[in-house]
Write a structure and sequence with these properties.
The protein is α+β, with helices and mostly antiparallel strands and 156 residues long. The chain has seven helices and four strands; from the N terminus they run ααααβααβββα. A four-stranded mixed beta sheet has the order 2-1-3-4, covered by helices on one side. α2 packs antiparallel against α3.
């Protein structure tokens, strides 16, 4: 077990009631719940890995796959849907060659859909690394992803 996880676990008693806070803190630190982390939590709390997975999978906040360097969330709420959110999502999928819940092969992007980001007047919207992108069109998506990739290549 990585020292950081060990230090994290030692902040809590080995009581099952600490499972959710531990999962939240592990995910905050590692960005997801790895099989190794779940195993270590299981050993520490004395509960099965299956029990931990059952609890964690109930909550949408927990992920079990390492996310990409950048997260793209495409809103599929009513306002975004009516104004072309489906086309925005299709364009992101085509450009990145992934579906929602997946990460690009190079580990650069993770794609997610959300029910609403609360910016309905700006629809259709998407969020890249917590930055809201408004009034998106398929062309804006393509241009945005191309500029992000160009900036990343220039930084090398």
């Amino acid at each position: 077990m990585a020292t950081s996880i060990n230090d994290l676990l030692n902040k809590y008693t080995d009581d099952r009631k600490n499972l959710i806070p531990i999962l939240q803190e592990v995910q905050e630190k590692e960005k997801y719940l790895s099989a190794v982390s779940i195993s270590e939590i299981s050993n520490y709390l004395g509960i099965s890995e299956n029990d931990i997975f059952s609890v964690a999978s109930f909550y949408s906040q927990f992920r079990f796959i390492k996310p990409g360097e950048h997260t793209i969330k495409v809103c599929q709420g009513t306002a975004c849907h009516v104004r072309g959110g489906g086309r925005v999502l299709e364009t992101v999928e085509r450009e990145l060659k992934i579906k929602p819940g997946q990460t690009t092969a190079n580990g650069k992007y993770t794609l997610e859909t959300v029910a609403c980001i609360g910016a309905c007047a700006l629809a259709p919207t998407m969020v890249i690394d917590n930055e809201v992108k408004r009034n998106m069109t398929p062309q804006k998506v393509t241009d945005l992803l191309n500029s992000k990739n160009k900036a990343a290549n220039d930084a090398r």
